[in-house]
Amino acid sequence: MSPLSTRKGPVGVGVIGAGNISKQYLDNLTVFPDLKVHVIADMFEEAAEARAKEYGIPEWGGVDKALHHPDVEIIVNLTVPAAHVEVATAAVNAGKHVWTEKPFSLDRESGLGLLKTADAAGIRLGCAPDTFLGAGLQTALRLIHRGDIGTPLTAMTTFQTPGPESWHPNPAFLFQHGAGPLFDMGPYYLTTLIQAFGSIRKVAAVGSKAKEIRVIGSGPKAGEEFTVDVPTHVSAMAQFDSGASSHSVFSFESPRARVGFVEITGTEATISLPDPNYFDGDIKLWRAGDEDWTTIPATGPANGRGMGVLDMARSIRAGVPHRATGDLAYHVLDSMVSISESIDAGTFINVESSAPASAALPEDWAPETATL
Ligand SMILES: NC(=O)c1ccc[n+]([C@@H]2O[C@H](COP(=O)([O-])OP(=O)(O)OC[C@H]3O[C@@H](n4cnc5c(N)ncnc54)[C@H](O)[C@@H]3O)[C@@H](O)[C@H]2O)c1
User: Fold this and answer.
1) In this structure, which topology does domain 132-296 adopt according to CATH?
2) How far is the CA of 287 from the centre of ligand 1 (A)?
3) Chain-wide mean pLDDT for the chain?
4) 335 CA to centre of own chain
5) How far apart are CA 199 and CA 356, in angstroms?
6) Does 3.40.50.720 match the CATH number of domain 11-130+305-324?
7) Which of 80, 127, 168 to mutate to test the pocket of ligand 1 (most atoms within 8 A of CB)?
8) What separation in Å is there between the alpha carbon of 79 and the centre of ligand 1?
9) pLDDT at 4 over 70
């Protein structure tokens, strides 16, 4: 088998983690012509088998089956957050590029270790969210970067719901170390703010936990109780390199759901962005002196989860940087860990890492077209 760097044609993919989110990924990964999903794996092999049969994936099995598959070039790591670094590191050691679901890691040490291991091996790391590559956020970022709101100054974001235990059949991990509303939803909002403003330099936050025990609301385990280990309401301020600042609420404690609120104010206008957990949605602009919003439709591709994997695959073949990088995801993780530390310490925390700039995605980028 030829080394990864000299291969041609569609890029071989192996998926590890056949749970809830794997369906959204496979809906796209199995139809993008520049990708070929050869194998799906899970610690529960029957889960992998079921997904393989659902999507016509030729092979399934345990983790090693995907890691050592000769045609796999990118491992798509859709395991739970606590397993992200372990699975990604095993993939790097097996010589595979890795796309990981968010968060990148649970702590700085293991995240930095993964970045260094991959760098030394010449292996690429990509990480969710790739929603910022969708038409909605790309259109908004184009407007911001070409100066339609003047100089970006401040932002407000809100994500608040009663919590995911009502709909997720296995929600306990979402209330453990490495999750909660900050680590689970923060990546969408912070990645968007970083794309608009640049790197985060310092943060301050307060957090709280209203309930020690929650109850699973759906699926075969409905009615089972689990413990809550992390703050379920976080209110965080961030200041960016440019001096711009943001205020964000991340909460699983609100009877009233209000999600996807992102407003960025500049010297000339305020822009309302679409929900950063999605790939599409209108943009609204309120210029100084206006009496109502002007709606701007999103333009560009909005296929959904897997766009970041495809961008990574095409970038591997072209020998150019991909957009949703491990370094960007590490900066988001570093910022979230700093927010947690600020909650505990009651002080501002400086964020040491920086995010590399991600190139804009061309409006005519076409996931359904075979280019390799
Ligand atoms: N569910 C969603 O709506 C959603 C949305 C966006 C992102 N995500 C992210 O996707 C990831 C997975 O979430 P999910 O909701 O699919 O979880 P899930 O619990 O439904 O699925 C995770 C799967 O990974 C497997 N797994 C866990 N550890 C493993 C290991 N060490 N080796 C092999 N397999 C292992 C589990 O058996 C399970 O099948 C998380 O990081 C989550 O933050 C989920």
Assistant:
1) Dihydrodipicolinate Reductase; domain 2 (3.30.360)
2) 42
3) 97
4) 14
5) 8
6) yes
7) 80
8) 4
9) no
